[in-house]
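Onboarding guide, step 5: your first structure request.
Type a short instruction followed by the sequence, for example:

Predict the 3D structure of this protein.
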Amino acid sequence: MSATSQVNNTPYLYQQVINLISDMRTNGTLQAGQKLPSLRQLSASLSVSIPTVKQAYFELENQGLINAKAKSGYFLNQESSQLSQPKKARSPLKAITVSRQQLIEDVFNAIHNSSHNVALGVANPVAALPATKALNRTMRRVMAVSGDKALHYGPMNGYEPLRRQLAFGYMDYGMSLSPDDIVITNGAQEALNIALQCVAKAGDIIAVESPCYFGILELIENLGMLALEIPICAEDGLTLKDVQKAIVKHPVKACVFSSTIANPLGCVLQDEVKKDIVELLEQHDIALIEDDVYGDLYFGPKRGTPAQKYSQRGLVLTCSSFSKTAAPGYRIGWIASNKFGAKCAKIKRALSCSSSLINQMTLFEYVRSGEYERHVKQLRQVLLTNKARMINKLHSYFGDDVRISDPQGSCVLWLELPEGSDSSRIFHLALNQNISINPGTLFSPSNRYQHCIRLSYGLPWSDKIESSLKTLAQICQQAKISA
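The system replies with structure tokens like these:
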């Protein structure tokens, strides 16, 4: 395929120029220190405008791949060494009672009490590319057609056309789900809550990834269950060996895994491993609750297959939502399960009766029109660009003192600071500078990851973000010196 046809096949011309330069760098066509074609030359050869090439070169500079020399042009930088990824934690000795609620409350209160904070601690990828205009336009159409009906209570298990649309979407993975197998919830957090109540009770052991999204830990704590951490690898995620080791040593009742894209490490679990883990768990009558909220925000060539695809006994419950991809404020999520659907609906009715009907109707029309798919495709590209920018800046400001995850999806980075670093103290010092982060201990029931922090690149990129990252690096350095 010619360079020109490659450029013409992408929805973002400047991004295709970036991809072209990156590919030529990877395959050796361009060497470190080599001068790149001028703006005018590349514009002519690719049949794109000079501003398009200029935008691409500007972005490549932001990512640290090229540099501009006054009156000389653009040159390819020396390829940096491979990312040093965070280390895998040790396996725990036992399942423990979770006690994270107070810390989570303190962090959220501190973050949301000020509107001036640079929100590096909030995983809200939609902020990087809001869908506000399209959703407002869609909601006006819904109101014009449905009128007062859209403001009434909706069905307990959710708006049937939306459930049908979601079930239809799972057909892409060869999954046979009916609308009755799907229950609409108030976000993925309620979906996870309902799923846990379906398959476990107080005192039961729930296996979780480590590090693990703190919202899952809070649910386990609130339901009086015990958490068993299974350490995951920053490159490959869970391993079958570690899961097997955990369920042999401990009477695990259920597992809650981010089975496609892990949070906070951003690693992708390969479909073959996913299949093996599902088979292993079902052999031992252990339910799997998959948190799939980041599944659509993948950076690779294709989306990972939901773990439920590999279930033979119906012991997998899939939880997801539109919060990370379209409308966090709409609070529309869902549970998909052909075995526990009716039980999920009963628990949902007891918890919150029903979810917002107008929001469900709006999202149904948004998905059906094809606008949702186009938006998510654009959002993935923005997040991938932001990820490259943030990693480049962090390497520049932190140097070799930090290990940084290389997420293959989602919107967050996991930073491993030098041993002895106190992420809780860094959190408070950063907050004094109007910067919010997530301290690593939030992501473990056993106070692991004291020397780690989570940062979000799901934000509109700006000079303020770059300035905040520089300030954060200075804070970490000062905290290390005074420790």
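Each response can be followed by summary notes, for example: Residues 371-398 form the longest helix (28 residues).
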